[in-house]
Every structure is written in structure tokens, then in C-alpha cells.
Amino acid sequence: MPNNVTASPILEVIGVSKRFGGVLAVDQVSFNVAAGSAVGLIGPNGAGKTTLFNLLSGFESADDGTIRFAGSPIERSFPHRIARLGIGRTFQSVRVFASMSVRENLRVAHMYGRNAGSSHFDERAAEILSFVGLTRLGEAMAGSLSYGQRKLVELGMVLITDPSLILLDEPVAGVNPALINEIARLLLELLGRGLTLLVVEHNLPFVTGVCQDIIVMANGRLLVRGGGSDVQRDPQVLEAFLGAA
Amino acid sequence: MILDILTFIVLGIMTGGVYALLGLSLNLIFGVMRVINVAHGEMLTLGAYTAVLLGIVGIGGVALPVVAAILVVTFAGLVIARVLLRPLTIDGRVHEQRGMVMSLGLSLFLSNAVLAAFGPDYQRVPGIMARGAIEIGDLVLEGQRLVILAGSIVLAAALMLFLRFTLVGLAIRAVGENPEAAQANGISVPRIHLITFALGSALAGAAGALITPVTYAFPAMGFNYTLYAFITIIIGGLGSVWGAVLAGFLLGIAESLSVIWLTTGYNAIVGPGLMLLMLLLRPQGLLGRRLARA
Amino acid sequence: MAQLEAVALTAGYGGSTILNNVSITIASGCITGVIGPNGAGKSTLLKAIMGYIVPRAGAVRLDGDDITRLPTHERIRRGIAYIAQTRSHFPSQTVQENLRIGAYLVRDRAVRAARQAEIFRRFPILAERRRQPAALLSGGQLRMLEIGRVLMTSPRLIVLDEPSVGLSPALVDMVYGHLRELAAGGTTLLIVEQNVRKLLAVADFVYALENGANRFEGTPQALTATGVLANLYLGAGAA
Fold first, then answer.
1. What is the total count of domains within chain B?
2. CATH value at residue B28
3. What ipTM score was computed for the predicted complex, to two decimals?
4. Where are the beta strands (DSSP E) in chain C?
5. Is C78 touching B (CB cutoff 8 A)?
6. Which residues of chain C have a CB within 8 Å of the CB of B180?
7. Domains in chain A and their CATH numbers?
8. Do A232 and C237 touch (CB under 8 A)?
9. Residues of A with CB below 8 A from C238's CB?
10. Is residue B81 part of a domain?
11. How do residues A10-56 score in pLDDT, each as one tens digit?
12. What tens digit of pLDDT does each residue of B140-178 get?
């Protein structure tokens, strides 16, 4: 299914480039993401996906181009400002505070989100713990949880900042199959509630299950964009993954 | 006045030699194993008391106590590394917090063991290393202190040459830089850790034997030297061999000169004061590089 | 000549299991390749083979001897060499010192000198830069240094983790040219690769891993004949 740009896209990336030394990690990339959609971002290693995520979440600044979130430019913004605007991000290496309880982790995240000042933390925390299925483990030390459970805590931390767009960086890497399905279900729920998702993943079945719309990156450029089955059958895409002969 | 300043500078160089040796030896242990060894000064104590023991049985001089101290502390170092440090080592590096806490316990244990064995009294080594003094114009250089300086320089130079030109020295530097790659070249990281710790400790022990003729030995003497060893490597820069040497001498001179302006009790602030200054102005130290984690 | 087997390896880190019952056989004198998408367990497999991690179950055998729990440096002693994906050298040491470290286990000075001369002949740029710190070398030159370093022990088996990473196509060709030569000389190679096409062009036998399990084994021709590649990287439903 081709990308339907509805009234105003929630995210606009226009001609964005990023160079590290002599290497062009992201090369003139342009695309839009419609509000309420789920877009998958795939590509071989070194394609520029993580760099692009870093640019979108403010951890790097672009050398060229513009990034607009809900109309405002964010290409020069700091990560905390971007979080306040409503973009949440998870990381490949699960970043939770091991020596704090699950609830305390949510508390910290809450302090830096959109509703930082609000007093509804307790309700929100209970809601989110229930959503990710960790209600029983609210007081458990985050460091003592399994890898998969920590990933859920991280998701909870993102959710409590009340984002409208979530950037997920390899949300199911190293996760057992049962939990992969659970995470897919949670993401689809979030979609149903109107959130927008941008997902980087290597697990193709997972990505095509959650996202209708897939962008393929290779060598810093946008290669192809389309629905799951179109992308899977595109010979260019396979070539990109298999490398140059 | 000039004469005074010169005298103090010379005295400073002489104490600086010991600081340099301490800094070098601690740098070796920290740089390669990443362990913050709070018991480093106790290795010096062990060396000092070896000299005391020899003195009690009537053996004095320079070479013998130092050699004995090296042997004793090498053995102690090997035992400590094998029994206490190896269990804390993961992936070629000692667990930082556990290593530090363990070394703190070790420090307490060793100083109390010495207390139990020798009693709390200050001990002097009865033999004298070198009599007399050399006079250059009006400047008087005490023979004993010259021997200490010479000894420090010889030991420090020996270490630096060893690291630079021998195969084991190369292996030690390799393990410090990249333990995984070192293993991939057939270097046994556990074995290198043993050698490094023993070597670093032995040098501190040698320093202990060298200084006993001019200072007293007492069970808690190690702590101050541990402190100075750390101050030296922080000022010189973690991981820098020449930095430790430079910082050691600078510290000795600064501390010595400060006596001119500060009463004797207060010159103890010079070392920590310089360290604070360095951390504020140039945290990587004089010659330090940023230690990257492999 | 070396024959190495990984038999029913199950391994992982902390709470997660990355490899599940994976077996591969490296026949002596051949180039064996391992491919698979990210997260398939390729690097973990190499770490278990090299002894950086101990598997929870299964065994690693060299010429029939069980080396599953043998420390890494002992495996090197038995003739296996390893070039990791990144930082397989010592940046602050000179090129020459890096090679000397590579020859750590070689006692005979004449042998060392002869091998070093051979390496300088093969890689003239290393000879030129012998006294420079390795940190100053470019990506391609570093790969040459790593190969040179490994050749100092004249290993029977060389294990390489993604040798093409970070290199331009021309440099990748150069590296693979050297690897082909080594294989032709009788050295066994185990290569994990991202660049599947490059690997298929040189490998005698290929294993494909997916989600920590064996997915395919066979010759490169057999692999390309099936639809496995597309499935592996693009999921079910691909061509």
C-alpha cells in the first residue's frame, strides 16, 4: 500500500544529510509519516537507520535539510526538548535504571515528559503498568528483571511521557518469540489509540505484522518504500541486503 | 635565600624520586588491570619492615634490604593477585568497585598484621646506607638521600626499559590497551595480571626499603604513601608513564618549597591542593590521554 | 590443516539465549562461510568458538579434541587465529609492535624475521609505516595489519568476523584476494560475513543462521538455487 499523505503529516523529513568524517551516513533522505500510521524502517547494517533515528530524536544534528514535527522544525533541537514536544524513543541497548524499582523508573521518565508538572502520575503509572503487564512487578528492581521485561519497562517509560510519535529502535532484538508477539500486540494497540510509530527492526515478520508501510534504506539513502509484500519481492531490496557482488 | 631555595629544591627532587616510583608502580597496576589499589602503600610498608627485620638481625647497607624487599613483596603480590584479584576479574578487567573495596580491606588487614607482628612503636633501621655528604659550593647533599634518589631513578628506569623493550613488557602494555585482542594473540591475560601486580607491588616495596634509613617505619605508614601515589598519577595523567615521573618530581619540589611559606604542619595540603587544581583545570593530567574502554 | 566442529551449541549472555543448538563443521583446507541476518547469532557463535564465552550446552572440538572450556589464549596456541569485527589491534603501538605482539607465541627469532619480511612483501604499505602508531592507519590498512598480525603465527585456521565491514568495494576485493590466496596455500578459513555476495563468491561451504538456529547448509550454488536467501533476509513471503 503506497504511502497516503493525509492532511498534514506528523513528521516531515526533507533532504536530510549527515556526515561523519568522510562518510555520508545519511544522504539526502526525504519522507513523510502520516499521523496515526506505523512505518517500518529496514535495511542492512550501516544503512544509516540508527543515525537517522539519532537525527530525529536530537542526539545528532543534521548537516543539511529540515525535520518538522507537527509543523515545527526540530533539526537543531536538543533531545529533552524533542521529548517535551511529544517524540519518544526506545534504544537498542535497553536503558533502564537498574538500581531503581520499575515504578521509580516510570517516575523519572515522567519528570521529563509532556505532563511533567501534572499530579496524575499514580494513575498514569498504574495504567501503563497494567498495559505492559508488569503490575505485579511495580516495586521490583529493574535490574533484577529479565531482558524482555526490561524492554517492557523501557516501553512504559516512553509511554508515560505521553508521546504522539514513538521511535522504536529494534524493539524485539534478542527477545523470545512469545514476547515478540506480545510486543507486536501492544504496538498495534497503541496504533489503535492514535499514536504514530516508526520502527527500526531486522525481524521482518515482526515489522510487516505491525507496519503497513515499509521504508528500505541502504548506503544512507532511501531505496524503496511500499507495503510489506511489495518490498519483500523487490529485487533491489534483496540486493541491498546481500551486498555488492 | 637562594641557597635555601636551592636546598629545598634539591630535597624536593630527592623525595620526588620516591613519589615518582610510587606513581609509576601504581600506574602500572591501575593502567593494566584497572584496579584502584588502596593497599598500594601497604606494599611499601611490607618492604620497609623487611628492611627493619634485616636491620634487627644486623644486616644493613643498601642493596641487600632492597633486594630482600623486592623478593618479599613480589611473593606477596603474586599471592594477592592470585587469591584475591583473580576471582574479581571479568573479561580481562578487575571489577572496579569490588577491587577497590577488597583492596581497602586488604590495606586494613596488612597494616594491622604489621602492627601485631612488630608493635606500634616507630622503628628505625639501625644500619646506615651511606655516611657523610657531598658538598657543592655551599649546598650540602646528604649521602643517604642521594642514595634514595639514585635508587629511585635506577628502579624507575629499569621498569620503563622493561616495559619498552622486553616481550613481557609489550604483553603488559597490550593487555592494558585491549585485553580481548591480547588474548587473541595468545597472551594469557590472567598470567599478565599476576606479573603486573607483583611488579608494581615489588617496586613499592623497594621504595619502602630505600626510605627507611631516613624515616621511621610504623604500621600505618602506608596510607600516606597510597595517597601520594594517587595524587601523583592524577597530576601526571592516568596511563602516562612519563607523566607519573614528571608529577612525582614536581610534587616533591612543590611540597619541599612550600616549607618556606607554610609552617611544617601545613605543607601536607600541597599535594592534595595541587591535585584539586589539576582536576579543575586540566582533568586529564599533565601528560594524560583519555583512557578509552575497549 | 584443521578441522573444527561446533556441536549443538547453546549460548547467550545474561538472561538471554542467542544460540540454540547450533552445529557447524569447518573442513580443513576449505573456506567455510556463515551468514544470517542481524541477531541471528553469528558473532556469538564465533565468540564461543574462540573461547570468549562458554556455551551453556554443546561442545567445540578441534581435530577431535574437546576445547569447549579451553581459555582463548590456549586455542591460539593450538593454531587458531582470530580477527574480530572491530578493534582487533593496538592503536597506540606501532605497526611493528603490533606484528611483534602477533608473534608473541613464536620463539624462533629467525622464523619471526622471515614471516615479517613476507608480510612486508605482501603489504608494502605496512613496511612503509612500520614505525607509526596503528591509530594512524586507514580502515583498509588496518585490515592488512590484522591479517599480517595473524600470519605471524602461521595459523592452521583463521576465523574472521565480518572482514568487509567499513571497507570500500575496492578494499573488500583486495582483502578477499588475500584470503583466497591463503586458502589456496592450505589455510582453513571460517568467515562470518554481512556481504553475502562476496562471501558466496569465495566460500566452499556455507551455513545460514536465523534466530540462533541452523537454517541452511550447503554449497553456495545450492544456497542460491533455493529461495532461502530472500526468506532469510526479507522474511516469509519474499521471492
1. 1
2. 1.10.3470
3. 0.86
4. 4-13, 16-26, 31-35, 57-62, 65-66, 80-83, 157-161, 188-192, 205-210, 213-218
5. no
6. 52, 84, 87
7. 1-86+164-176+190-245 (3.40.50.300), 94-163 (no CATH)
8. yes
9. 204, 232-233, 238
10. yes
11. 999 999 999 987 788 999 999 999 999 999 999 988 789 989 999 99
12. 777 778 888 899 999 999 999 999 999 999 999 999 999
